[in-house]
Design a protein that fits this description.
340 residues; alpha/beta; Lyase, Ornithine Decarboxylase, Chain A, domain 1; 2 domains; six-stranded mixed sheet; 9 helices; 18 strands; elongated
């Protein structure tokens, strides 16, 4: 009994082909948990796409995509830092492009691996990594310069991208690798900068056809329970008559894990307050749906299963039945990924 991701393969691949046709120079990204699919599956899918490079998050992911069959260029998105032994080993690999975001790191690499392939990252309004105007110009010595990287916020700005590209190209001509521009803005950008452009695409490529993806859990057990009886690790008291429904999927798979969300609007703040009130009352909604409704956790999820609370005289499901579960793909590890 498993937490399962079922992929409608024809629909998923049709979306990939359509998106890449709109984005010349696209570079697929496969990092972390592989957006829920797994790095091995994404590496295999990428080999069927018309692209000469694949981007990964960290150096330790390079062997994983290679063992799955990806033998072309790999771009490591996390910038190189002294002391990262895995990333340093890759500096000598002729099929790996290393990201550099600090002038002092560039000097170190020039001395230790003078023929390494490098990409230079410009600092954007993300304020995460990157060179600033004061770091330019740069002497690359005999390093193989593969271009500039511009990693924009999730809603990328064409104006910011154009301004940063102009500063970078004034220092040194080279390809511009970027992320998070809309397709329309990317078309404008690539025809205006006068150099080769590459667009890294991860979320839009792999998760841009949600109707092709179905996530389900199995019902493992159902127990009638009466008001006042105790349940679970924490022995909380049942508020009224109903059913305990045990579903596959727990913390080991990432169930109920969530990244913090920005609190920009009154609605977002209201949702956060409402969720806090429900949790305080022991009525936190789970991502599992029974009878078309998300059901509350009876207690926090266990390692490989979750206890759900269904009030009333009918649990609405049977043991062995599959039920829908809403998953955050980038934090979920599925027991099975089925290509249908």
């Amino acid at each position: 009994m498993t937490l399962r991701l079922t992929v409608s393969l024809n629909q998923w691949r049709a979306h990939q082909r359509a998106l890449l046709a709109e984005v010349p120079g696209a570079v697929p990204v496969a990092k972390g948990n592989g957006y829920g699919f797994g790095l091995d599956l994404l590496a295999k899918e990428a080999t069927n796409l018309r692209t000469d490079a694949l981007a990964v998050g960290i150096a330790q992911e390079v062997p994983k995509v290679r063992s799955a069959g990806w033998l072309r260029d790999v771009v490591v998105l996390n910038p190189w830092r002294p002391g990262d032994l895995a990333a340093t080993d890759l500096l000598a690999d002729p099929r790996v492009i290393t990201m550099v975001s600090r002038a002092q790191d560039l000097e170190t690499i020039k001395r230790s691996h003078p023929h390494a392939r490098v990409q230079l990252e410009m600092q954007t309004s993300m304020r995460r990594h990157g060179l600033v105007a004061g770091d330019l110009p740069l002497d690359l010595g005999t390093l193989q310069f593969e271009g500039w990287s511009i990693h924009l916020p999730s809603v990328g700005s064409l104006k910011e991208a154009t301004e940063l590209a102009s500063k970078a190209l004034t220092c040194r001509r080279g390809a511009i690798w970027m992320s998070h521009l809309s397709v329309a803005d990317y078309r404008v950008f690539r025809t205006s900068v006068g150099v080769q452009t590459r667009m890294r695409i991860g979320t839009r490529l792999w998760l841009g056809a949600p109707s092709a993806l179905r996530t389900t859990a199995n019902i493992l057990d159902i127990h009638r329970i009466r008001r006042g009886e105790r349940l679970g690790y924490h022995q909380s008291s049942v508020p009224r008559d109903g059913f305990l429904v045990i579903a596959s999927g727990g913390t080991a798979q990432g169930i109920a894990l969530a990244a913090p969300v920005p609190q920009r609007t009154l609605r977002q703040r209201g949702v956060t307050i409402a969720e806090g009130v429900l949790e305080a009352a022991g009525k936190s909604l789970s991502p599992f749906s029974i009878g078309g409704r998300k059901r509350p956790f009876a207690e926090p999820p266990h390692m490989h299963s979750s206890m759900l609370w269904v009030a009333g005289n009918d649990p609405g499901v049977e043991v062995g039945e599959e039920i829908p579960v809403t998953c955050r793909m980038t934090t979920t590890t599925f027991d099975e990924v089925t290509l249908a």
